[in-house]
Amino acid sequence: MSIDVSQFHSIFFEESFEGLDTMESGLLSMSEGETDADTINTIFRAAHSIKGGAGTFGFSNISEFTHGLETLLDQIRNGERDTTNEAVEVMLSAVDTLREMMSAVQDAADIDEEKVAHVSSELTRLLQSDEEAAEAQTISDETSSNETTLATEHQQAGWKIDFKPLPHLLQTGNEPSRMFNELAELGKLDVELDDAALPHFSDLDPEACYLSWQLRLETDASIEAVQEVFEWVEDDCELSISPLVDEQHQDTTQLEKPFQDTDASPSTAPIAEQAVSTQSPESTAPKVDSVKKKPSTPSTEMASIRVGTEKVDSLVNLVGELVITQSMLGQIGENFDIKMLPQLIDGLEQLERNTRELQENIMRIRMLPISFVFNRFPRLVHDMTSKLGKKVNLVLSGEQTELDKTVMEKIGDPLVHLVRNSLDHGLEIPEKRLAANKNEVGELHLTAYHQGGNIVIEISDDGAGLNEEKILQKAIEKGLVEADENLSPEKIHELIFLPGFSTADAVSDLSGRGVGMDVVRKNINSLGGNVEVISEPGVGSTFTIRLPLTLAIMDGQIIQVAEQRFIIPLISIIESVEIEPKKVKRVTGKGELYNIRDEYVPLIRLTNVFNLDGGVETLEDGLLVIVEAEDRKVGLFVDELLSQQQVVIKSLETNFRKVTGVAGATILGDGTVAMILDISGLLTMHREPAKQLNSSVIKVA
């Protein structure tokens, strides 16, 4: 009975992309002439796993391309070749090419054969280099394995192999016959099948493996060559390999050792994992010149989430509690009597408690470490510093800080903009740094941590800081500010977020088009967050991003406006005050302003914004809710404040269309629908009254 291996394609691609990220991180940590054994073994194993998996699933072009890369890595790990910067760069190019090839196969698109051929030729050129071959030395006698020595002493004729797959091996896409064919290429192979564990037909699981094999391989190949055949399945089988000696030496003690103990790096885990793992796989710490910390290997494809077993167990326990509560309430409902009211109340309280815990645990499943985003930056910094002729230490911290998967997917591009900005505009070239009495190697820090209900991400550098004079001059040239305006340093720093602003003297592939920083702010604001910058000339700059942990659930303040109820995100509220009419100023063309602690904030009447009738008209009869967005404060005039509660956000755009001033909707406890206000949108409507025309459609009966 054949198995449809296509069902495992998605797992193969996911694990292969993880393997490529592991390889990239390891290669970035390698320096000229220095190779850490654990690092090179990790990289080699990832390449070998990708080659084996590609061969298993019939992706021969990927398997053949990876073979050249694997051969080069094998020579380095065996000490036959020194690590050079040229070799590292070629291998990084090979990783990029593999990533593109797998993406093309996954999307059923055409592979760039010209690029594949070019990188393959570079790998071949390195492998055939006479200079490096002359410098290479074979593995010394001291490092020869005991297995090889013992086999040689006893006139080894080959190897005896006991191979017993675990029941799930076939479900990983591996097929024993492929491994046997590969063994047969090493010499004469005799195969003996053991089917003693095969169950009765009625108990047979068609996707489980019940067979085991005893193999006799007559060959002069080393034990390492035999082990390599089984590397792809090392955690999915029981394996022992012992010398096959001439008949006169049959009484010699056999060398028998579990396969996983023979690897040079026992701590190195294969790419293949169970569908539910307790931790993301650890990769070797990436560095560009030097990188501190060890971020977890990110998954390139975010279509699935790896969930720790403890989270799954917690959900299972909570579902069990809910079933018990439902059963109890069901019995009460069947024979309800007023005397059972206390029991009913207890049951409802228990149901509420379990539901709240279930909600919290479900949200925890969506939380992922920000290392999934951070781990793209070592390569970015490596490539940019090579182009710019700069030296940079990338320091990562707080990589295990968790945030919602949806937020993470949308924060990647803004972070790339900010990192590129620091590398291009902030950090100086070595000559300028030395002239300024600085270390020629600049420091770029990416830090993440939780603060209240938010996640804070900081991108800081010890570069030249923002050139305030140049920024102001460029803003005046572009007509963004008046020439006679007297701006504080903080206001000048804010100019970099204006559309079309750039201080680059020439447009390049790195900067100068003025489409970066304003996009950063817009994207971050769309996530309900904000970004601010602090800079000191000659010392450096720090960009700070604050984001909500999740976009699915938020804390909100329910307000009453006429006959409607709205939700204001609690994170946007600064305070609420009773209005004193004498503090209200009316400015022609500007509307109403309210003076609060010597600061005038615009006053927005929500009844006018949403075309509502019957609301409070007299200011002293209502309340003013001071909110902040885009670093601007505004006062929302409401009839009254109701309760605060967590609300589940439903997209209005998905179910209807985008409405200015409305971020989404939610269903309240009584079943009615309430709109969630978008403070940034309200500011836009206040500045551009014409945008209010589309808001009348949001009235809810």
UniProtKB/TrEMBL annotation:
Polar residues bias: start-end ranges: 137-149
Catalysed transformations (reactions): ATP + protein L-histidine = ADP + protein N-phospho-L-histidine
Biological-process GO terms, alphabetical: chemotaxis
MF GO annotations: ATP binding; phosphorelay sensor kinase activity
Pfam families given in the database record: CheW, H-kinase_dim, HATPase_c, Hpt
Entry keyword set: ATP-binding, Chemotaxis, Coiled coil, Kinase, Nucleotide-binding, Phosphoprotein, Transferase, Two-component regulatory system
Name of the molecule in the record: Chemotaxis protein CheA
Species, as recorded: Methylophaga aminisulfidivorans
